[in-house]
Design a protein that fits this description.
The structure is a homodimer. Chain A is α/β, with parallel strands linked by helices. The first copy, chain A, is 48% helix and 18% strand. Chain A has eight helices and nine strands. Chain A has a seven-stranded mixed β-sheet, with helices on both faces. A two-stranded antiparallel sheet of chain A has the order 1-2. In chain A, strand 3, helix 5 and strand 4 form a beta-alpha-beta unit. The model of chain A has no long low-confidence stretch (mean pLDDT 93). The interface between A and B is large, with 62 and 63 residues. Chain A binds a DNA duplex through helix 3.
DNA sequence: GCGTGTGAAATGCTTCACAGCG
DNA sequence: CGCTGTGAAGCATTTCACACGC
């Protein structure tokens, strides 16, 4: 089953919106309903759900519960994936905090840092280990996905070690492009890029407003 | 001048790579050169630079200095844009720290929080103000781009206030879709979505490996 | 009638491939 | 000859529009 990355992103959004709708007491949603909540179009929503393999078969809208089940099946095989954060600076702590509050789809089960002052402490419910224990713990807990929040200069060699011990997915917050072998998926999250984009497009929208 | 978002993102990358190359003593780069550093193709790089309006006219490669000048012109009109961070929790602090170290393209000139304990303090070189002063300071300093790092429940009404006082670009780190009038650009940066994507595609790549 | 499911058209982005220039 | 600049082809994604079922 092949899926465009954009569709996957939208499906993550739908999940959050569906949970909200469910809390509001709704049991089903129409495609245009979800479209409005997500800022897209109804056709887009229907196409996404079709790719998901989710069809309701009738005009009564999509049953929320069934959608959520199917999304969980595709996105995280029902049980949230175990993850780790590496590098407990400001950003690493923000990540730990963020994922300790968010739902159960993502469970951060270990944190690593090379600063001995941090090792052994528990932050946001997550134990911090020394990097020298990394290989052992990643293997023991079968952690396949990690977040890299270390300085740019250390990210590549860290990534090499991770790949070496079986990690297959990396969310890289360091501002360098990582080289990894095929079969390992890297998502590069660069806040500088994100903000330069905002700066550019906001200026653009602004200057077009003379039209 | 209209530009695909993807091209803008790549251009931000190119800038960083070009600066690195310059530090290494290079004065020019070939398209395949930049392609390799950025993980793309040479044709892609040439097309991007073409869209940028950057042509070197000959086979000697692109002069780095000129490229950087042109990129700065397009991305941040030479002088880095003044920005603000709102919400000084874990994530807000991480953002302040990140942008205090990064180059001068992005200058974070103010931080806001509603916790009186934080107001008046200086974090990573940036003064923290109370939210009640927000309108005044954003106007005084002509800040057009801000980062929202407050809880989801407060993000929308905060966005309304921001738009009201002239903000045209928002980087939204809260997990809600913001409604803004046309002419305001919002970039939604959702770490949960990013990580679910990694989880999904790493699993996918993994299961395809049997082929 | 109303909303879904889905071919088919439209749009947007990337890659190809080659002319042109130093 | 090697590399750029760019039309044109090739893909991917989004939107349209309409048949179908309740």
């Amino acid at each position: 089953m092949t899926m465009p990355a954009n569709t996957i992103e939208r499906i993550c959004q739908y999940r959050r919106l569906l949970r909200e709708a469910e809390k509001q007491g709704r049991h089903s949603v129409y495609s245009y309903d979800l479209a409005e909540r997500s800022g897209g179009t109804a056709a887009q929503v229907r196409r996404d759900l079709m790719l998901l393999g989710c069809t309701c078969g009738c005009k009564a809208g999509y049953p929320i519960e069934r959608l959520l089940l199917r999304i969980a099946e595709v996105l995280d095989k029902h049980t949230g994936e175990a993850m780790a954060v590496i590098g407990i600076g400001n950003l690493g702590r923000a990540l730990l905090s963020h994922f300790s509050m968010t739902g159960p789809n993502i469970r951060v089960v270990a944190a690593f840092d090379c600063d001995p002052a941090k090792v052994g402490r528990v932050l946001h419910g997550c134990r911090c280990y020394g990097v020298e224990e990394m290989e052992r713990i990643l293997r023991e807990q079968a952690i396949k996905v990690v977040m890299i929040a270390v300085p740019a200069s250390e990210a590549q060699q860290l990534a090499d070690r991770l790949v070496e011990c079986g990690v297959r997915g990396i969310a890289n917050f360091a501002p360098v492009l990582l080289r990894v072998p095929p079969g390992v998926y890297v998502e590069h999250i660069d806040m500088t890029v994100a903000l330069e984009k905002v700066s550019f497009f906001s200026r653009l929208a602004n200057s077009e407003e003379k039209a």
